[in-house]
Design brief:
By secondary structure, this protein is α+β, with helices and mostly antiparallel strands. The chain contains three helices and 28 strands.
C-alpha cells in the first residue's frame, strides 16, 4: 500500500472507528478501499483547485505588476510634464516717505507689487521664459509741481506679460535671447534695465571665470540706441569675485539718444489769410513775417508761434489752423563708450565688501535756464559713478530668523536725462543721479519665504525741476517692504 493509501486508511479508520468496529473483515476492507478512493478523489480535486488558484494568483500578480508599471510610467510622465513648467516670483507690500525734489514723484513706492515669472522647459538644453509685473499704488503721492495726486481704479496697473526670452546652450556656449531685465556689474551701475537683445557666454578654460558678449537695446519709451560689448565675471582668488565689462554705444558723442516724448514743443500755425492780433501785449518768439500796422500786430501766412511768455491779445484769423507737437531730443549724456569695474570680497566670516565703479566718455556741457531767481547755469562735467556696500551676513528666505545688515555709500554724476551711467539701475528711485550719500538698512526673515527689508537714506541730492537744476538739498528717504516669495 503506497503512502497516500496509508494516509487515507489511517484517516478513514480514525473518522469511522466506531461504525466499523463490528463489521465483517471483507466488508470492512471494501469499505476502507471505498473510503480511500473517495479521499483520493477529494485530494485530486483539491490539488486541481489549488493549482487553479495558484494560476489565478500568478495572473493577478502579473496584472498587478503590469498595472504598477503603467501607474509608475504615468506618474513619471505626469511628473516630467509638470517639471517642464515652473512658476515663481514674489508679492510685495511697501511704504515710503521721501522728500525728493524734481520730476520723480514723491512717496511713489506706497504700493502693492507682484512679480510673476514662468519657465517652460523645451528640452534638456533650452527654456523659454516670461515675466509679468503688476504695480498698483494704494495711496496719494506728490507730483513734480507739488500737487497731490491719487490713483483711481486701475490707471496705474499693468499685469500684462512684459518680458519674454529664451535661455539655452549649444556645447559650451550659453545663450540669453529676448526681452528681459539685465545688468552689468554686481550693483548694475553702468547698465541695469529692461533690454531687448542677446547675451552669449562661455566658461574660460582652466579658470573660474565666465566671458560674455552682448548686444542690448534699452526699452524705455523714446530712447533709440543700443549697447554692445564684452565682459568677464567669476572668482579670481580666495573670497574674491570680479565682474567687469566694456560697452560701446552705436551712436556718437554728439548724436541724439532718442526723443523725449514727455517734453514737447507746440507749434501753432494758420495758413490762408493774414492773422491779426488786437491789443497785443507781451513777448513773441517765432518764425515767419510779423509787422505792426495801425497799432495791430499782423502775421503773414505760415507764421508759427514757438514760445510766447506772457502774450495776450485777441486774434482775428481765417484759414487752416494746425498745432504740431515736436518732442525734444535726448542729449547724448553717455558718450560713445563706457566701462564698469566691480568686485565682491569676503575677507572674513559674514563680512562682504562690494564695490562698483562705472564711467562713460560723455561730453561736458552746461545748461542755462530761467527760473524764479533769474538766469542760472548748471554744469554737467562729471561722468563717473561709484557705489560701495558693506554687508554683515546674508538673509535666506529658506531659513527663518536669518538676517542681513548693510551700509551703502554712493556718489553719482549729474545727468540731464536723469540716467545713471549708460542706463544704470536706480533701485526704485533710491539712487538718483546728481546725488551722493549713505543708506543704512537691514533684511530679516520672520518665516520661511517671507522677507522684511527697511532702509534709511540721507544724501545730498540735485533738484531736477526746471529753473532749479543748479540747486542741491538734503534728501531723507525711508522705505520698508515685505516680500512674499513663492
Amino acid at each position: 500500500m503506497n503512502q497516500k493509501k496509508t494516509t487515507a486508511l489511517l484517516l478513514g479508520l480514525t473518522m469511522s472507528l466506531t461504525g466499523t468496529a463490528f463489521a465483517a473483515p471483507t466488508d470492512q476492507a471494501q469499505d476502507i478501499d471505498s473510503r480511500i478512493a473517495a479521499l483520493e478523489q477529494q485530494q485530486s480535486n483539491l490539488e486541481k483547485e489549488i493549482k487553479e488558484l495558484r494560476h489565478q494568483n500568478s495572473q493577478l500578480k502579473n496584472q498587478t505588476h503590469s498595472q504598477e508599471k503603467q501607474l509608475n510610467g504615468l506618474s513619471k510622465s505626469v511628473k516630467s510634464e509638470l517639471d517642464r513648467v515652473q512658476i515663481s516670483g514674489f508679492g510685495r507690500v511697501s511704504w515710503d516717505n521721501d522728500n525728493i525734489k524734481g520730476y520723480t514723484d514723491r512717496n511713489d513706492n506706497r504700493r502693492f507689487y507682484l512679480d510673476l515669472k514662468g519657465k517652460f522647459k523645451v528640452n534638456d538644453d533650452w527654456n523659454f521664459n516670461f515675466e509679468s509685473e503688476t504695480n498698483p499704488r494704494y495711496a496719494n503721492y506728490v507730483m513734480a509741481d507739488g500737487t497731490l495726486k491719487s490713483h483711481n481704479g486701475h490707471d496705474d496697473e499693468d499685469g500684462a506679460i512684459q518680458r519674454v526670452w529664451a535661455e539655452g546652450k549649444t556645447g559650451v556656449v550659453n545663450y540669453d535671447i529676448g526681452r528681459r531685465w539685465r545688468g552689468l556689474g554686481f550693483q548694475n551701475v553702468l547698465l541695469g534695465n529692461e533690454t531687448d537683445g542677446a547675451v552669449i557666454s562661455t566658461a574660460i578654460p582652466k579658470s573660474k571665470l565666465t566671458a560674455n558678449a552682448f548686444y542690448l537695446t534699452p526699452t524705455d519709451k523714446g530712447y533709440d540706441f543700443s549697447v554692445y560689448g564684452a565682459g568677464v565675471q567669476g572668482q579670481v582668488g580666495h573670497g574674491l569675485q570680479i565682474s567687469a565689462a566694456i560697452a560701446k554705444l552705436n551712436i556718437g558723442k554728439h548724436e541724439s539718444m532718442g526723443q523725449n516724448v514727455y517734453d514737447t514743443t507746440k507749434t501753432f500755425k494758420v495758413e490762408g489769410t493774414d492773422v491779426t492780433i488786437k491789443d497785443l501785449s507781451g513777448t513773441i518768439k517765432g518764425g515767419g513775417d510779423f509787422k505792426f500796422k495801425d497799432g495791430k500786430g499782423e502775421f503773414n501766412p505760415g507764421f508759427s508761434i514757438d514760445y510766447t511768455p506772457g502774450l495776450s491779445g485777441k486774434i482775428d484769423a481765417s484759414g487752416t489752423y494746425t498745432v504740431t507737437e515736436t518732442p525734444s531730443e535726448y542729449r547724448n549724456t553717455a558718450g560713445s563708450l563706457g566701462f564698469v569695474l566691480s568686485a565682491m570680497w569676503n575677507p572674513m566670516k559674514n563680512i562682504f565688501l562690494i564695490g562698483d565703479y562705472a564711467r562713460t566718455n560723455g561730453q561736458d556741457y552746461t545748461v542755462g535756464e530761467w527760473g524764479a531767481n533769474g538766469y542760472t547755469e548748471t554744469k554737467y562735467d562729471k561722468h563717473d559713478c561709484t557705489a560701495l556696500r558693506l554687508n554683515y551676513r546674508w538673509s535666506n528666505i529658506n531659513a527663518p530668523g536669518s538676517f542681513q545688515l548693510y551700509a551703502r555709500w554712493y556718489n553719482y554724476a549729474r545727468n540731464i536725462n536723469n540716467l545713471v551711467g549708460i542706463f544704470g539701475d536706480k533701485e526704485w528711485g533710491a539712487l538718483q543721479p546728481g546725488s551722493k550719500g549713505w543708506i543704512l538698512g537691514f533684511k530679516y526673515v520672520p518665516a520661511k519665504n517671507i522677507e522684511w527689508e527697511t532702509f534709511y537714506e540721507m544724501a545730498t541730492a540735485q533738484n531736477t525741476l526746471y529753473g532749479h537744476k543748479n540747486e542741491t538739498y538734503h534728501r531723507n528717504f525711508v522705505s520698508t517692504m515685505v516680500d512674499y516669495h513663492f
